[in-house]
Every structure is written in structure tokens, then in C-alpha cells.
Amino acid sequence: MTMFEELHALASSATLTMIVSADDKSGRMTVHVIPKPKKDVDEPALTKALSLTATPQEFDAGFVEALRGYREVRHSLAEQAEATKEVLEAAKLASVKRAGDAASKAARPATSKPGNQPTETTARPASTPAADDETEDEGVAAAAPAAGGSASLDLFG
Questions:
Q1: pLDDT for 78-89, tens place per residue?
Q2: pTM for this structure?
């Protein structure tokens, strides 16, 4: 491809800025090809400029090849960045799904096994040796004044 065909191929994925400077003393020139990706790219390597310093004759002989190599590496990096982005998005979705599954599992009531059913017990007042001798009616009668009644009861008579 010609120089402008390579520049066109490179410019299809990024807006290019080119800066060309010359040093009269050394007879060399520096060419900077600075890409600005057209879409949001989080990969810093894709914004790396191509900076070459050579004589005009060296540029005539090798600039097109240098552009081609740069374009191919950028294309490869862009593909890798896109593949990495897709992997990360898939991992993010999987993580969100696992978190949602765990949350819904935690919200569901736990099912009990047949042998692990809680048993219902009735609370009974603690017995003392003296209370063991009383009959059930006497225990209720003794508890009545304590429950809020102020009437006196004759327990023995």
C-alpha cells in the first residue's frame, strides 16, 4: 500500500494528528503520528503515538512499512482490548447473577427435615419441694393474689 492508503487504513479507527519537524543541522526529521480513538477506549496503549526520527531518504524507504506495522499492532491491541472488555463484562454479569441467586436463596424460608421439627412445649412454673405437696387447685389459688388481686385467701381453711 502507499503512504496515504496506510494513513487511510489507520485513520479509519482513529482520528490522526501528524506533527512533522526537521533539524537542519543533523539533516534528520521527526514524524509523530498521534491517534485519538474514535470510540471510548480504556486501553492507554491505543493512544500511544508513533514517533520516528530519520533522514528523508530513510522515510522514503521505510515510512510505509513503519505505518503498516504500527497499524497492525494497534489493530491487534484494539482486538485484545475489546476481547478483554467482553470477558470482563461477562464476568460482571455472572457475578451479579450469583449475587442475585444467593440473595434470593437467603430470602427463601429454610425447609426443615422431618426429624428436625421444633416441638412445642408448655411453660410450667419451677417447682419447689413445698410446692410439690400442693394440689393443682392450690397452685392456681396461690398464684391468683400474685397476679394482681389483693384479696386474701385462706389456704388452710
A1: 788 788 888 888
A2: 0.50
